[in-house]
Specification:
single chain, 211 residues, alpha/beta, 3-stranded parallel sheet, 7 strands
């Protein structure tokens, strides 16, 4: 039950509303991977009804900010690293100047360098675009670095929401825990590292018995 509203619009009633209000980037950058980055952005622009010439100009500017050299810009996306592909995916999402950008675990599975590069680009997006960003992540360090506010979900329920500093201060003052995001997570989900380890071991034992 319930309803979904974005920017004052009821998306249940306005199913065919302005799609440019929202854009999304998931764990895996989904592309026609034979296309080059400029072709990828231009294609996305056409899907969203943008003027082809204006989209091309905007795409060139975005790709320049990503640090893609002229030598590499004409290569297929499939020849780029996963980190660079994710940055192109975020750039593609920004092409429509969305009011809401959904980032669903955009750094999962990336090597450390690519992960830091994508995080830095997200920080740049925060500073340079008038866009609300909702980021989902299991990485507490990433959440603390990138998010103004953090909401913790447990079993489908919202169990805590505040700024990173506010959450850490709360667990320190009310629960006597260390002011860290790990302590915040453990406190509000009612879990401990020992319980998680025991649960994993129990699942492994059950699997062995079934075999």
């Amino acid at each position: 039950g319930g309803w979904v509203g974005v920017c004052g619009r009821d998306f249940e009633r306005e199913v065919r509303g302005d799609r440019r209000l929202i854009n999304r980037v998931g764990v895996d950058a989904a592309f026609l991977k034979k296309l080059s980055p400029p072709e990828t952005l231009a294609f996305a622009g056409r899907l969203y009804g943008l003027d082809a010439r204006a989209a091309r100009v905007e795409a060139i500017g975005i790709l320049a900010r990503l640090g893609i050299s002229e030598k590499r810009v004409g290569r297929p996306v499939e020849q780029m690293s996963r980190g660079m592909q994710q940055k192109v995916a975020i750039a593609r999402a920004l092409l429509t100047s969305p009011s809401l950008l959904l980032l669903d675990e955009p750094t999962t599975g990336l090597d450390p360098r690519s992960k830091l590069e994508v995080q830095a680009f997200i920080e740049e997006v925060r500073e340079t675009h008038d866009t609300a960003i909702v980021l989902t992540t299991h990485d507490l360090v990433e959440a603390e670095r990138l998010c103004d506010r953090i909401a913790i979900l447990d079993g489908g329920r919202l169990v805590a929401e505040d700024t990173p500093d506010g959450l850490k201060r709360l667990v320190a003052e009310r629960h006597g825990q260390a002011p860290t995001m790990d302590a915040v997570f453990m406190t509000f989900t009612g879990r401990s590292l020992d319980e998680d380890v025991e649960g994993d071991e129990a699942e492994t034992d059950d699997a062995d018995e079934r075999r």
